[in-house]
Design a protein that fits this description.
Elements (H helix, E strand, L loop, with lengths): L11 E5 L6 H14 L4 E4 L2 E3 L10 H10 L5 H4 L2 E3 L5 H8 L5 H14 L2 E5 L7 E3 L2 E2 H8 L3 E6 L4 H14 L4 E7 L7 H12 L3 E5 L7 H11 L2 H5 L1
Parallel strand pairs: 1-5, 1-8, 2-5, 3-4, 8-9, 9-10
Antiparallel strand pairs: 6-7
The structure holds adenosine-5'-diphosphate (ADP) and magnesium ion.
Adenosine-5'-diphosphate binds next to helix 1.
C-alpha cells in the first residue's frame, strides 16, 4: 500500500489514435497495475460494437476489462449500450435505428464512480468517432469531465495520427495525462518515436508496452510496472 488513498483519484478516459491500436489491452494493464497499487479500480466501455459473444458478456472488451479489474459490476453499468455491428455509434444508430443515449452513459458513469476509487473508461475508436450528429468522442470526454490518456502504436504513420489526436484534445480543452506507445507491431524504434512525440506534442510519453504474449493479470502487472510511469497517471 503506497498511500494513494490520501490523493483524490481521478478517473481516466483511455482513447487511441485509431481502432485496434490497443485501447483494451492498455486499459486492462492499467487496471491490473492500479489494483496492485491498492487502488479500487472500476472499468467502463460506454459503447461497444461488433459481434456479440455467444457466452458471458456481449462485448469481448468488457470481458477483458472486468477480468483485469477483478470487478463484478453489472454489465448494463459497465457497458450501457452494445451495437451488434462493427461500426461507430453514429453509423450503428443509422443502420439499426437505436439511438446512442448520452444521459444513460453519464448516469452509469456516475453510479460506477460511487462504487470505486476511480474508473478507467475505454474509448470508442479514435477521438473523432461520431456518436451523434455534431457529437464525437471528444464531446463525451468533456461531458464525463475526466482527463484522457492517448494510446498510440509504433507503426509508421503514427506520428500523424498522434498529432491529430492531441490537436483535437487541445481544441476541445481536454487535459491529456500522457501518451502510451503500444509497441506491438514493428515500426519506429521506440526511443526515436518517444523523442519526436515529446518534442512535437509537448505531451509526456508515459512509456511503451511491448508485445504481450500472456494476458494473465500477473503478466500484465509485471509488464506495466516495468514499462510505464504509473505514478504520473495517479497524480
Ligand atoms: N501489446 C500488445 N501485445 C500483443 N497484442 C496486442 C497488443 N496490443 C494490441 N494487440 C492486438 O491487437 C488487437 C487489438 O487491440 P485492442 O486492445 O483490442 O485495440 P482497441 O481496443 O484499440 O480496438 C488485440 O486483439 C491483440 O490481438
Ligand atoms: Mg477495444
Amino acid at each position: 500500500m503506497i498511500g494513494w488513498e490520501f490523493i483524490l483519484l481521478k478517473s481516466l478516459f483511455i482513447t487511441g489514435t485509431d481502432t485496434d491500436v490497443g485501447k483494451t489491452y492498455i486499459t486492462a494493464g492499467l487496471a491490473v497495475s492500479f489494483q496492485k497499487m491498492g487502488v479500487d479500480v472500476g472499468v467502463m466501455k460506454p459503447f461497444a460494437a461488433g459481434s456479440a459473444q455467444k457466452k458471458g458478456y456481449k462485448s469481448e472488451d468488457v470481458e477483458i476489462l472486468l477480468r483485469a479489474a477483478n470487478a463484478l459490476d453489472p454489465e448494463n453499468l459497465v457497458n450501457p449500450q452494445f451495437f451488434p455491428i462493427p461500426a461507430s455509434p453514429f453509423t450503428a444508430w443509422k443502420n439499426l435505428k437505436t439511438k446512442p443515449k448520452i444521459p444513460l452513459i453519464i448516469s452509469s458513469f456516475k453510479k460506477l464512480s460511487k462504487l470505486h476509487d476511480m474508473i478507467l473508461v475505454e474509448g470508442i475508436g479514435g477521438i473523432m468517432t461520431p456518436i451523434l450528429k455534431e457529437y464525437y468522442v471528444t464531446n463525451l470526454i468533456k461531458d464525463m469531465k475526466i482527463p484522457t490518456v492517448i494510446v498510440t502504436r509504433s507503426k509508421v504513420g503514427t506520428i500523424n495520427h498522434t498529432i491529430m489526436t492531441v490537436k483535437m484534445c487541445e481544441k476541445y480543452k481536454i487535459p491529456i495525462k500522457g501518451i502510451i506507445i503500444n509497441n506491438f507491431d514493428s515500426g519506429y524504434p521506440v526511443n526515436e518515436l518517444t523523442r519526436d512525440l515529446k518534442s512535437l506534442t509537448q505531451v509526456p510519453v508515459l512509456g511503451s508496452i511491448p508485445f504481450i504474449n500472456d494476458m494473465s493479470n500477473a503478466s500484465l502487472s509485471k509488464i506495466f510496472q516495468k514499462n510505464l510511469d504509473l505514478k504520473l497517471l495517479l497524480k
